[in-house]
Amino acid sequence: MGEKSHKRNTGRIVFLSLLTLALLTLAAGMVYARFGGFGTGSCADTKEFAKYAGSVADITVPEQVRIVALGEATHGNAEFQQLKLEVFKVMVERYGIRAFALEGDYGSCRAVNEYIHGGPGTAQEAAAAIGFTLYRTEQMAQLIAWMRDYNETAEQGEDLRFYGFDMQRMDWNYHFLTKAAERLEVDASALEQLWDDKAGRPADSVGSEQWASAIQEVKIGLLQHEGTEVDVHCANVLLQNCELGRAMASNTEGMTVRDKYMAENVRWILEQEEALGNEIIFLAAHNGHIERQHAYGSEGKAMGNLLSDEFGEAYYAIGTDFYRSRCNLPKSNGKRFNHTFYSHDPLAKASKKCGYEISWLDFAKVPDNSALKQQIVDYTWMGSVGEGYTPFLSLLPMSYRVWASPAKLFDGMIFVAHAHPTAPSAIAQHQE
């Protein structure tokens, strides 16, 4: 064999070797991105899991509980939205809960509350009024429709109420505040002059302090009248929104402020229900907001952490997780699409291997001498997908997982084997 031929063969071998290596690396990268690792994680003891797992209908809460919080591992899966209705039904029928509180703005959820008490429109339009695409789903419409149907035959004082405890939007809070001012002849002209009807927010030229001052003037006027608690709360939520806007320059500070005010609003909802003779409420939000231990930075605490500190064992947190999620979420350009995630939660994997599509595990019912108990206590990776997609979610799977002890975050968990994407609609917001 000649020298030139030998060099050509050597070059071909090197090229093919590099190509093979590149293809193997690409394949490995695709597997890693798909499963969030080279596999789907470890599995908890399936025999022990099957011994203590049950269905959503088996959920019970201790007698001293005053707040039952249901989390969702993602905002974009149909099963987690459907669980809101299924768990709430159990709470209504077994514990007499009459209040459903959502991670949505108070004013927009007040609009939903009017609908479930016989207001105009459809359940789909009521869901759209909440103002977030993630709630414009058939599952949310079914929850709202069920509450309306329940109220049609409920005895006096036994009706269900729909609350919101967030403060990210302004339109419905402004709507109800100005309507109350008109009804009670409170001067709201200064506030109305600052509002841009077309944009559904204060005019761009309006400063935060000017806007807050105008809200405060209307609030003071309403406080001169009795029975204005719900209208004054609209003013308070608008003021919270002002503070949130100032804090959003820092993501950590913004999240801390938001969760602090959400916790305050949950307390207010509980007080409203106590005044009606109800001692317990139900709320639904992302896992990250309802966890007993969740912090932003070194000092900021999540809503569930704050409520747990205040109410102790009277706060009951139900977390959720998935084995596999085909999740609907938006890209940076706002367009929504479906993406697959794996949680690597050994409890979720055990639930799936036991044949459950959905299962409930009450941590308190698992004895300390069970092998499963240690797996509940140990730190592990759990799924936690927010409302937004970036390529980092595929390149760095830990960015959509939480490393924590399930027992420290929740009192029990619901596991979904295969979570399917929601299908948000383009229903226009309904407003009178």
Describe the structure.
The strands form four sheets. Strands 1, 2, 3, 6, 9, 10, 11 and 14 form an eight-stranded mixed sheet that branches. The chain is built from 17 helices and 14 strands. The chain has a domain at 44-77 and 319-432. The N and C termini lie far apart (89 Å). With 432 residues, the chain is of the alpha/beta class. The longest helix has 33 residues, at 3-35. A hairpin with a 5-residue loop joins strand 9 (315-330) and strand 10 (336-342).
The total of helices stands at 17
Described by its quaternary structure, the protein is single chain
Number of strand segments: 14
The average pLDDT score comes to 92
First-to-last CA distance: 89 Å
- Taken from the alpha-carbon principal axes, the silhouette is globular
Main sheet, how many strands, which sense, barrel? Answer: 8 strands, mixed
Helix percentage range: 40-55%
Tell me the Rg in angstroms: 25 Å
Residue windows where pLDDT falls under 50 for at least 5 positions: none
Strand content: 15-25%
Structural class: alpha/beta
Features:
about 425 residues, alpha/beta, 17 helices, single chain
